[in-house]
Amino acid sequence: MKERNKGILLLVCVLTVMFLAVYNPSMSMAARADKKVKADKTDPIDRWQAKPNAAYDASKMGDMSDFDPTTVVSPTGDTIKIAVVASFSGPAALNGALYWLNAQWAAYDINKRGGIFVDGKKKLVEIIKADHMGKADQCKKICERMVLQEKVHVLWGTDGSNMMRIINEVANSHKVIAVNAMCLADSLMDASNFSRYAFHVAYSTEQVGRAFAYYYGQIRKKEKKFYILCQDYSFGHEIAEGFKKGLKEYYPEAQIVGEDYHKLFLTDFAPYLEKIKASGAEVIYTGDWDPDAGNLLKQARQMNVPLPFANIYMDSPTNAHAVGVEGTKGLTTLGTFMTANPQFKLPGYIKMYTAWNNLWKTKWKTAPYTDRGFEIYGGNYGAWTGATYWLLSVIERAKSTDPEKIIKIWENDTYQLVNGKVWKMRACDHKLIEDLAVTEFVPWEQQKVAMSIPPYYWFKGCSFYGPVAMIPAAKVLPWMDQKLDRCKGKNDWGE
């Protein structure tokens, strides 16, 4: 009888606990909270990559067989007007040529398809040159002209974060969209400079530094002595600070053996290179862009400084060929377009790459586009065209050139590039969230790990893209200024 009573008592206890778990509010909420905690541990980028809001559809790619950046004529009239604001003259004029090619490529593709349905009708895309000459006063003047006289819907730029700040200010004043496709300075989108009309469609300075630190400290685990050499303006200092912060976070045993900053468009790097030679450095970390990037690499090899550069702008095939296979072997570059190897996993990317490469061989007969720096599609070109395609996709889905409607779509939007890479726009500060990739330069025989289509190498005359190490977005989320009211109380994912 006692045993039976014990059994009944045990059954009653079990049923009571079950009843309380189901009907007791505090217990049921605790259970839901536990489930929520588990769900929050999921990397948000996994969710975004699984089903992006939009994607580039290569099956609809326009006929690019006649595209030539030197002869292309933009449509006029009632169009979607985009001003490419850049250096089209002066010491950095090559940058204007680069950006013009990439923006025009995306526009030409869309126009060949018949344009985009916006504001109640199909409209073509018009690209307009806006030369800021690398001068602040000219930048403001040309941007004002583009908005007030040319009536552009978008200001797209540029070379120089100082110039991008001016572009954003003009866009904010006149309520037009500004697209930052290549400037990295985190300060562009901080509490003091943020504009809801501006979108930062590039990685940022702190991300670059932290990504390299993660690569060298958590993946490569070899070199420990680094020398920082960057351009002496806000961008150069910010990208250096990002690296120093990243080393503390991911590679505390590493050592910075020297740190210098040089003026823009420098022609003599010898004094800096002599210091580097004496420092015992194993890697030179730089954020230099052309012409400084190319000149720095060439002079380093001429002065018998064989150290690898950790860089973001030294992947120009022109500069690489100038120093040859040995001079480029071991360089590491960080990219916003590359994916895990092999690179050509999707037929759409093969289609676009082949179209670009064939045009360079057969159609582009006028300088500077005959240069080998324009030969292949990928790297920065993939990112810059990707930024333009994303912009046009947002406009198409907004069905309008109204900036308010564009902003509504672009905030929190996800977009898949032609190679499968997925980008997300963080809503509160309009910064790009993505996985990043560090790529090591190797001789042509080893390039097939990345270049997985014939001829299975990018170039024979220089070392180029080889092994790729992916840096998860969670490790390099863009810096968020908590002083910006829109971001208060949010985590680094913007949630």
Give the neighbour order of strands across the main sheet. 10-9-11-12-13-17-18
CATH class of the largest domain: Alpha Beta
Strand pairing plus helix content: what structural class? alpha/beta
Shape, per Cα inertia axes: globular
- Beta-strand content estimate: 15-25%
Secondary structure: number of strands: 18
Do you know the CATH architecture of the largest domain? 3-Layer(aba) Sandwich
What proportion of the residues is helical, as a percent range?
40-55%
Which radius of gyration do the C-alpha atoms yield? Answer: 25 Å
Label this structure with key terms.
495 residues; alpha/beta; Rossmann fold; 2 domains; seven-stranded mixed beta sheet; disordered N terminus
Give the structure's gist in a few sentences:
The chain has helices spanning 2-23, 25-40, 44-50, 93-112, 136-148, 161-174, 205-220, 234-250, 270-279, 292-302, 317-328, 347-362, 379-398, 403-410; strands at 54-55, 80-86, 116-118, 121-123, 125-131, 154-157, 177-180, 198-200, 225-231, 255-262, 283-285, 309-311, 332-335, 414-416, 422-426, 431-433, 436-442, 464-471. With 495 residues, the chain is of the alpha/beta class. The longest helix is centred in the N-terminal third of the chain and has 22 residues, at 2-23.
